[in-house]
Amino acid sequence: MTTFLIILSIALAVLAVGQLMRVFEASAKLKGGTSEVPTDAENRYQAKMMLVFLLGYFSFFIWLVAKYGDKLLPESASEHGVHLDNLLDFNFAIITVVFAITHVFLFYFAFKYVFNKDRKAYYYTHSNKLELLWTTVPAIFLAVIVIWGLSEWIGITMDETPKDAVVIELYPKQFDWTARYAGSDSTLGASNYMMISGTNPLGVITDQTLMARISELEAEKAEFQAELDAAPLGGVKEEEMTEKIEKWDRILEKVRSFKDLDLANRSLGNDDIIVKSEFVIPRGREVAFKFRSRDVIHSAYMPHFRAQMNCVPGMVTEFHFKPTITTDEMREKTQNAEFDYILLCNKICGAAHYNMQMNIKVVEEEEFNKWMQEQKTFAESMAPADEEGTAEVTTEDNVISMIEY
């Protein structure tokens, strides 16, 4: 009801303004004039008001910068983030200077060149010097911005990662994140989406998961085959069941091929550590992030660290940075005891996109090492196998989704 009343009030106000304009036009015609053509006095008044507006306009701009300038971005908490903030400040400086100059001329010219029936306008057709000036100067500034920005981007994406860096894979799906740490070998284990199951959400390939996945697929195929054998011959259903079994065969063939990985590669994932809801990184040490995606394109966005990367199905993207401020220190700086660094999805990936986030905790090196020692490795956290050696598996619907992926 309140919304309706507001809309009605706005509509009535518009109608009232329209009626006032009609009254003004009618009174002007009765006086023998026309409201469309302003008088010289009106022109001079409007010209002076342009200067008044110019002062008010810039006063309001300065107030906004003073009041809210420090709220554009939170304080940078990474080493490279400081350089990116400097680049952003450089952009703002250029924009502000151009903004001020153009608006001063805009309103001053409106005052200076107020209409005068005795003055004739000069038509300026072309100037090579002006063309060269307003082409060269922006090109120089743009070149500086692009080269500066690329150098910073290369610094976190293409420069060699230190050997002692913490290696973390961030794996998104609709609508959550999973973090996987490389264990003591500093190398993430091999993975493949065809290996994904209820006990292996990231599809890590080890001897244990490989055996469980093959048993799972064979059991599911056997169920479909039994259903096909029991169904009447012919019809659309038989074609669909036959097609699914053929897909199952192709996946089984692919999964069995992972046995060709040598023993060393199949054991790399055993010491990996998988965490949900929050992951921990050390202050003052390089952290190398790797990204995949299970379903659609997501985007890993860490605003306090000035870092963002697309997570694309079927490929691995990466960047690395060095945190500089712990969570506790940032809580003191912000006077907010509940402050947490956060990982967000910055691609609209579906209905629950808004809820796709994960907390990040930055701690000192000693605390990080202690936390790592307390975590279970992937091998330790795997569900126990049953008597036939197969682990608990996903539902039939999840297996089908893997086939159709």
Helix content: 40-55%
Number of strands: 10
- Taking the alpha carbons of the first and last residues, their distance comes to 48 Å
Uncertain segments of ≥5 residues (pLDDT<50)?
Answer: 385-405
**Derived structural class:** alpha+beta
CATH structural class of the domain at 164-182 and 272-374: Mainly Beta
Major sheet attributes? 5 strands, mixed
Q: Can you list the strand order of the major beta sheet?
A: 3-2-1-5-8
Please state the CA-atom Rg, rounded to the nearest Å: 33 Å
Shape descriptor? elongated
CATH architectural label of the domain at 164-182 and 272-374: Sandwich
Write the layout of secondary structure elements.
Blueprint: H1 2-30, H2 40-68, H3 79-112, H4 128-157, E1 166-173, E2 176-181, H5 207-230, H6 235-257, H7 263-267, E3 273-276, E4 278-282, E5 287-291, E6 298-302, E7 307-311, E8 317-321, H8 327-334, E9 341-345, E10 357-363, H9 365-374, H10 378-381, H11 396-404
Helix pairs in contact: 2-3, 3-4, 5-6
